[in-house]
Specification:
Largest sheet: none
CATH class of one domain: Few Secondary Structures
InterPro entries: Osmoadaptation_assoc (IPR053178), Zn2-C6_fun-type_DNA-bd_sf (IPR036864), Zn2Cys6_DnaBD (IPR001138)
Helix content: 40-55%
Distance between the termini: 51 Å
Protein name: Zn(2)-C6 fungal-type domain-containing protein
Strand content: under 5%
Organism: Aspergillus cavernicola
Structural class: mainly alpha
Pfam family, one: Zn_clus
CATH superfamily of one domain: Zn(2)-C6 fungal-type DNA-binding domain
CATH architecture of one domain: Irregular
Radius of gyration: 25 Å
Number of helices: 19
Keywords: DNA-binding, Nucleus, Transcription, Transcription regulation
Order of helices and strands: HHHHHHHHHHHHHHHHHHH
Length: about 475
Amino acid sequence: MAPCRTCRSRKKACNGARPECSTCRISGRQCAGYEPHVKGVFVNLDATTMESRMKSLIGNAIEEAKARKPEPVHVKNPRQDNLMSTTALSTLDLSPGEFQTHFLALWTYFKEAYARTPSCWSVGVSNLSLDSKALDMALISLATIRLSFTGHGNNYLVFSLSAYNTGLQAFRRILQSPRGESNPQLVVISLIFTLFEASQRQPTRIYESGWEGHLTGALALMKCQGPGRFQNGGFHVAFKKVREMAVLLAFTKREGTFLAESQWMEIPWKMVEKTSRDRLFDIALRMTTLYSRECQNSSRQYKEIYDDLLAWKRDWLRSEIFVSAECPNSSSLSLSLSLSDTTLFPNNEFSYTSAEYTALLLLLTHMTFQPSNVPSNPNLTTSTKINYPETEVQPLRTTLQTILTLPCFGRALSDAPGITEGRCRSLFPIWVLSQTTCTSNAGVGDYEDEWWGGLYGRVNFGVG
């Protein structure tokens, strides 16, 4: 029988009487009532204080995160002095200090194992933690599913699924509450659930998972709340990550998206300046409209986007990232259209963005030229096609394949499950390659030839 809040804080025996317990009534204290009954799932780094039946599962699940924990991390949260009142803590039998330690051990490990760039979304959403049980459990489930891929049996997986189930229940309660749909935390939680579902599948088979349902839910909530809710902080970072995945979803479904509307390209950036990548995805969203089944295309629209891509490329190469001290190869970089020499790539962010840019240029070239052996865009008539050179498609494919073999993409060219920032950012380029299959797959070696050769069938199974 769970004690009341007052007896628990005083460490006194409680008879559980309702509405107030006898211990409080006899001692003349006000009974603070009882916590709602929720089956909490969480870790405890000190296994000696846990119930015996949970020691093995949870103790093993946290061992590696604890062993790899970096220098102590201090929570920088304006609510730090009042953590006991947060939803996340009130339903768990842990002190505020314990909860912070456990959560930070897991999430810090995830950021180290997942993130490859300083601007990664996992870094930006950290300031939203320790405020909502649903979000905390979603983050915990994603962190532990990442640990489950390290080959330590099913302990991590079982724990991650338990945390996911607990977070999903809490998410539904928020959603069903009055004005719950207006809570931007739900968009962030849906984002985490999307990544959780996708990470359990092979990168080329995520379309068979539940990622689309969670992502569609995140987009519906986002549209309901309006662009003004995602202008700064962790919500803005999460918005950009959802937008990135929405581009992939729109292309795979051949449907337009509300994110291509001008207000969604402008209002979320009222308080922050757009990055080069933000501007690149503005162009990508315009392309989703052209690629949709409903769009009536014209050669002028294609030409405008083509020119905008080339202009974006020139501005990007002139940007400050190439003249910073951390880019020793900056003087060797050219403003030419070729990105085939990957030895000049100065950092991971440049590699990722190069892959995304090349993928967009390849897809646009494919859409407007469309070799006879590739399914064509039914909305693009012969009279509206732009006559790009036939040889342009294959060199772009070869360049993109070469970029995707860089170490920062992790196991992007593997069909094993897993999740890193590099693998996430390889999803769209790999999908583009699957849509632009040519007769020849020459390019980056025998292993890659075999892998690329079967790409169309693997990626497109379950799409649509």
